[in-house]
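Researcher: Structure for this, please.
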Amino acid sequence: MDTKPVFHGSDIEKICEYYHLNKDEIVRFGANVNPLGLSENVKADIAAHVDLLSSYPDREYTSLRETISEYCSIPAEFILPGNGSSELIALLIDARAPKRTLILGPTYSEYSRELALSGSTQEYYHLKEEQDFRLNVDDLCRTLSEGYDFLIICNPNNPTSSAILHDDMEKLLTFCTEHDIFVMIDETYVEFAPDISAVTAVPFTKRFRNLMILRGVSKFFAAPGMRFGYGITGNIDFLKKMKEKQIPWSLNSIGAFAGEKMFKDQDYIRRTRELILSERGRMYRAVSEMPGYKAYDPYANFILLKVLKEGATSADIFDRCIRKGLMIRDCASFQCLEGEYIRFCIMMPEDNTRLLRELSI
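Model: Predicted structure, token format:
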């Protein structure tokens, strides 16, 4: 019997091998990467400065941190650049050495992997489908009072595309401060939010010392291969502890240079937000009217759907779409997500229209 494998969102090679497809002809609705691709200005700047590879980067990344400081409106000393969010997650967990961790789920699996290596116990607090995956902060605080010392949040969350907004986040951080709980917030998708200021917790780093925020350039700036991320915390002693454990020159010269250029490319940032906000609204309205699915209000650049068609599975829909060159995400592999769900990100308008047509069948 031929058992179909479950694919990760970036398993393009495995998918193409299984379905005998050319990966260059696949529209990657499962990867959550900005469809505009890398900024043309950044490409030109990198090409003109490739000789940077002949020298070490500034060990303190002074210019890069100053650029991020201006981009995020926080002091440069709050910032720790790194080799992607994955390195920073590992450094943070190692430096914090939590004993009992609570993860807001369903969410990204890398948190769980790093915690398993650290020896920390880990448990999940499940966002509830009947509440449209919106967080009940009071209920989460009651759970946290049961002896946890570390909380992990992805905001906006993957795969639900839900978000914790400013007032609820402030309430949660205040509770965690009072109970000596350190909070890690992954803001990979925050730049896609309709109102970034309503979602980001970056301003809270000036008030709360039990907080670190992680960001990167993989999704919004379409540069996953650059492996550039950065952490933000107002706890300078903790940041120094992380830095002591970090490999010197963790981010290469080209990555540091390109990072500066990305944050300054206001035209690219504007065009990205215009595209995503417009197309996300169009797609959300369209799928909300389809009787075969339940859609959830999206804050990230992707939309989660629950499959309501009788007898249909997420694997069935993935299979039908991929055969048309449309690679969505079958969410069967996400922990804490019970039922049949698919997720797709926002791509270029013509490709989005193709996907909507296929989903409506």
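Researcher: Any notable elements?
Model: The chain has a mean pLDDT of 95. The longest strand covers residues 100-105.
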